[in-house]
Design goal:
about 240 residues, alpha/beta, Rossmann fold, 7-stranded mixed sheet, 4-stranded antiparallel sheet, about 25% helix, methyltransferase, tRNA (adenine(58)-N1)-methyltransferase activity, rRNA (adenine-N6,N6-)-dimethyltransferase activity, tRNA_MeTrfase_Gcd14
Amino acid sequence: MLAVHEDREFLLSPGEEKGTDLGVLEVPADAEPGDVVETHLGEPFTLRALRGPDLFDHMDRTGAPMMPRDIGLVMGHTGVSRDDRVLDAGTGTGVLSVYMGRAGASVTTYETDPEFAEVARENVSMAGVADRVAVRTGDLTEHLDELAAGEGFDVLTLDTRDAPEVVARARDLLVPGGYVAVYTPFVEGTREAALAAHEAGLREVETLETIQRRMDFDDRGSRPSTAGVGHTGYLTFARRGPHA
């Protein structure tokens, strides 16, 4: 949980102690969100349960994670929800898997880098969804046959260079009506994923560029911010038809 004091906050577990510039802060083992805990100098910290944005800010990073704007589109366009079975590849930090797990989905995610996979497991545990998110070390493309022989997935999410190869097998992996979502930072990979979706006979193939701009408000007027980068990546969505 988060211990919050005005303009600063610390990520702490129940029973953990941390030295700060405001004094030593010790979180009781039986602490609950909403409790107020004081440092030995009498400075109050309010305990708060972690929400999605808090997890995004405090997760250990192994590279550039998928941004909330992209995660929101994946969640909104695929409708990931409770009791869904999700197959994911390119775990990275694990942020997308965590969001889907917090929505109640059961997620199996593949990460080729063993160190990245271990960090993702730690993040999944911190998010409290270790019972719903299984991080596997390996290349998803090497397990497609065995996964296709199972009961099928409701959603397939991919953030890997070989995504088109997996999309080509989407009809074997998805249940009727299931969705695939592919995130790619470059347009070339996006085109390949979209073409693979069409060739696989998927429906509702759609590609979106994710752009977001902050608004600035001051005495002179209001306008989009000129700072920062608006583009993060491309998202391609497709859906398996309603019949086998």
